[in-house]
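Protocol step 4 of 5: obtain the predicted structure for the target chain.
Materials: sequence only (see below). No template structures provided, no constraints applied. The aim of this step is simply to have a reference model before the mutagenesis design in step 5. Sequence pasted as it appears in the construct record:
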Amino acid sequence: MDLGSLAALVKLIAALAVAVPLTAYVMQDKLIFQTRPLREQERQAIAARHPQVADTFLQAADGTRLHAWHLASAPDAPLVLYFGGNAEEVSWLLDELPRRDTGAAWLLVDYRGYGSSDGAPSEKALVADALAWYDRFAATSPRLIAFGRSLGSGVAVRLAAERKLAGLVLVAPFDSMVEVGKRHYPFLPVSWLLKHRFDSLGIAPALTAPLLCIVATHDEVIPAEHAKRLYDAWGGPKQWVALAAAHNSIDGHPDYWPTIRAFLAAR
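Step 4 output (structure tokens):
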């Protein structure tokens, strides 16, 4: 290779070394938050199919209009605040939950940019919104339980650090978004690039609320070892349940809903 070709190759490598991390930094919001908005007509159609469900809105501190689906239950039943995955539009649970007889009321939270909530998602915004939803219902619900699935586990853990909870259900949770990012993008300086860190592991030792941790043994998105680190660090009583399933099929396992129902009944 002559000197001219070598110089061109070095320039190309240098350009890629800058361009790839820069692209990852700019695109990370779309990778982490795969928003699933509903049109107004879709929301109204869903509400019409489920007249027993309260179509609930809340104005955030910054003026953003937030939305959640509220499934009521007996007055003394716990209220489960549900925080879904990064690509999850939560209204599917309106058909699922009545068949599962969980003995609890549910608030299915639409993240910003998802469902019928306005705005754009971020770690800071999602945590602030979770606190707002908690405060909205704390006075009228006897016991509140946070349920976080995948990305939602990071929101639920942060809520537990700020408010009193009767328990947490974490499904396919992770230790921190940094560690998950390192697994999927080992060629990138994830620790430097990541804005939304969701460091649940750093919070876990100080948390004392009872934990139900459900993991998928064949999880290709968040391998169970990430959940195990979080579980081992948890400061309160805890239960580990491993189900033979993949990341997106775990709720189809026959032991999934009975395990959740038993945990909620004990709260």
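Step 4 remarks: Residues 3-32 form the longest helix (30 residues). The chain is about 40% helix and 20% strand.
Proceed to step 5.
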